[in-house]
Amino acid sequence: MHNRLLIVLAASFVAGSTHTASAQEVTLKGITSFAENTFYSRGFERFIEKVNADGKGVIQINYIGGPKAMPPFEVGNALKGGVVDIANVTGAFYTNLMPEADAWKLTERPMSEIRSNGGYAYMAKLYEQKLNGILLARHIDNNPFHVYLTKPISKPDLTGLKLRITPVYRDFFQALGATVVQTAPGEVYTALERGVVDGYGWPITGIFDLGWHEKTKYRVDPGFYTAEVSILVNKSTWDRLTDAQRDVLRKAGAQAEADAVAIFAEENAKDTKRQAEAGIQTIKLEGAAGKLYHDKAYEAGWAGIIRQSPQHGAKLKEFFAKAN
Ligand code: 173
């Protein structure tokens, strides 16, 4: 087992996962699967600030940090087992426990609609059963993924290229002929530097956080899917909280989810511009090529979800995909 994970486990054994400082105030242990103070942790860090401000004397979050404390692909297990109480993580990082969670990337409707059309309730049951978890809020949405390359392509074909992936990209990149290798975000820079990969999948924002722009020559447009990162709560912890404690979390969560679409409209534009300024060239797949690329992304994405979870996958498609 990973040394750092052992330290977290040991600490949690001593402290107890959820400990009560006074009769009223509870402190939850929080972890993020992305590096601290980087793009995909920031929404969670804002959420923690709000909880710790609004929740004085009621509920607090002790922020343990990111991948230095626990490998990203372990976060789902840690949440399920109650080693941590609250986690910032994307579905692709815990497909070992719940392959359906990777379907969040395929939503073509706003979260408000998915909450009202029954999709959220359907997923909530799966979270309970498979992860002993509660999906409190999705704070990343409206944020497309892209292919980033060190070598150019001229058509929607990735044959001969070796790309860094997570489960988000696997079926799509393979459908376009790529060879794939899965790594945590923390290993992307070294993989590029050593020439182990010819590129990687990542959303439109955040490539500057870990210096990948230095090794990136091309971005392929259009983007595809929409990134999801959510705040999850261990269900046993949740069930032990009072209504007042839950309300502090619910309120901060609702704010994070409601803010996401507008935040990303702005951040997407900012990083698109910054990439161009950093000399990253855009390879634009237009017309029929662009359509083929887009359609293949969704076709391969849904086929992958349905292959791993035939019953739930088909149902999720009804809730998440664009109404025809
Ligand atoms: O590429 C990744 O590591 C990944 O799957 C992801 C998911 C959501 C946001 C950012 C990255």
Structure summarized in a few sentences:
The chain has 324 residues and is of the alpha/beta class.
> What share of residues are in beta strands?
15-25%
Q: Any idea what the radius of gyration is? A: 20 Å
Alpha-beta content class: alpha/beta
**Which compounds are bound in this model?**
benzoyl-formic acid
Topology order in helix (H) and strand (E) letters = HEEHEHEHHEEEHEHEEEHHEHH
What's the number of extended β-strand segments? 12
Mean pLDDT comes to 94
End-to-end Cα distance, whole Å, is 47 Å
Q: Tell me the helix content.
A: 40-55%
Shape: globular
Q: What is the count of helical runs?
A: 11
State the major sheet. 6 strands, mixed
Unreliable segments of 5+ consecutive residues: 1-17
Give a structural overview.
With 324 residues, this protein is α/β, with parallel strands linked by helices. The chain has eleven helices and twelve strands. The protein has helices at 3-15, 39-54, 75-81, 111-116, 119-131, 170-175, 188-193, 235-240, 243-277, 287-308, 310-320, and strands spanning 19-20, 26-32, 59-65, 86-89, 133-140, 145-149, 162-165, 179-182, 199-203, 218-224, 229-234, 281-284. Strands 1, 2, 3, 4, 5 and 11 form a six-stranded mixed beta sheet that branches. Strands 8-7-9-6-10-12 form a six-stranded mixed beta sheet. The protein is globular, with a radius of gyration of 20 Å. The N and C termini lie far apart (47 Å). The protein binds benzoyl-formic acid. Benzoyl-formic acid binds at residues 40, 90, 92, 166, 168, 185, 201-203, 227, 229. The site of benzoyl-formic acid has 11 residues, from strand 9.
